[in-house]
From TrEMBL:
Molecular function GO labels: ATP binding; ATP hydrolysis activity; nucleic acid binding; RNA helicase activity
Protein name: ATP-dependent RNA helicase SrmB
Reaction(s) this enzyme catalyzes, per UniProt: ATP + H2O = ADP + phosphate + H(+)
A UniProt-annotated Pfam family: Helicase_C
Region (Disordered): 373-409
Cleavable signal peptide: none
Record's subunit section: Interacts with the 50S ribosomal subunit.
NCBIfam families found in the cross-reference section: PRK11192.1
Enzymatic class: hydrolase
Motif Q motif, residue numbers: 3-31
Function comment: DEAD-box RNA helicase involved in the assembly of the 50S ribosomal subunit at low temperature. Exhibits RNA-stimulated ATP hydrolysis and RNA unwinding activity.
Every DEAD-box RNA helicase Q domain range: 3-31
SUPFAM superfamilies: P-loop containing nucleoside triphosphate hydrolases (SSF52540)
GN (gene name): srmB
Amino acid sequence: MIRDFADLDLDPVLLQSLEEMGFSKPTQIQASAIPVALDGNDVLASAPTGTGKTAAFALPAIQYLLDFPRKKPGPARILILTPTRELAMQVTEQVKSLAKYTRLQIFSITGGVQYQEHADLLAATQDIVVATPGRLMEYIESETFDCRAIEWLILDEADRMLDMGFGPVVERLSAECRWRKQSLLFSATLEGHGVENFSARLLKDPQIVQSDPSRRERKKITQWYYRADDLPHKVELLKHILAEQSQKAIVFIKTRERLAELRGMLEKASIECAWLQGEMPQDRRNNAITRFRDGSVNVLLATDVAARGIDIPDISHVINYDLPRSADVFVHRIGRTARAGKKGTAISLVEAHDQPMMDRICRYQKEEIKERFVDGLRPQHKKPVFKKKKKTKASPAKKTGKKSTKRKK
Ligand code: ADP
Ligand code: MG
């Protein structure tokens, strides 16, 4: 049973940087993936967003380089691929922090950077390179990047890479790195997206490491909901939450149209926000994420599709302006707050017709979500009553109690 980073056979220089970063205990995926990777296995790992996958692959990779130091200067030994430039930046930063007390050279290669900057950097000795697939492939084709020395290939957010159509280029990169010793594939999910097929082509006899929507990590999310009578009431509640309760909030909305509508209303109320929606040009997307991340704005409006894969630390509140279509999407959404080791709050706005979904969500996550009220914004309608604490399917309370004697099972 692994409880501490010290149980993981990591170098003291890593333990020191972990301590400085405030990582006191490994997350579940870290505790399971790190030993398996250090034993020399290929790894197929999945864990929900925000559960510390970066360190789960970065720590064994760094440890490997410390265990087998290079004898002479040369090209990169570890290649980490991420689907987007913004993720590459984040991963690079985290790897650099973890490797703070080593002499390892860490670089990133992504689009949007002047060629000359990369050219200089590619001449240098590198240990770890974090790259987006498209740009890296260009460098390989122009022979400015040499991947013959790659010993580990790590794919981060494989599900998202496939969604974004990077499958073929990643497979070509994998072929370029054919002399590697080990491959690690990390993903938020293994279902759908073709991740299993993809991993079968990239990994050799992988050890599969999965971490459930970890209870320990999920527990730190405080949840409640407010009932809303109608749209205007809902908007008032949201404004109240944004003004009085939250520091940094992501607000989930069902559709693009509703997002645009809400945006207008918040603007009128002088609440500044950034937003993400599907089919948004990459630069505007990045711009929105950057503004939210660096705190220029403290509210991010997003649809589920648009919010996929983004990783922003320190989200204090997840607000479900609309409930999602399914309970697992709900769990995914709220997982964006309370990042490993921190606390977070998830607030849902529930209209009468949402009540059955709310019940389903509670059953799914095996946790009751309590109702709260805002003075002056109490709902006018009575809470639709559904049978509590019974396994029977929710059915509206009978006022007359005469006709419907049959209950659905
Ligand atoms: P994922 O890739 O699974 O979405 P990240 O690797 O981005 O998650 O980590 C999410 C957040 O949790 C980051 O802010 C990271 O610094 C923090 N974190 C990771 N591991 C730990 C840990 N063991 N203890 C505390 N915080 C951690
Ligand atoms: Mg990640």
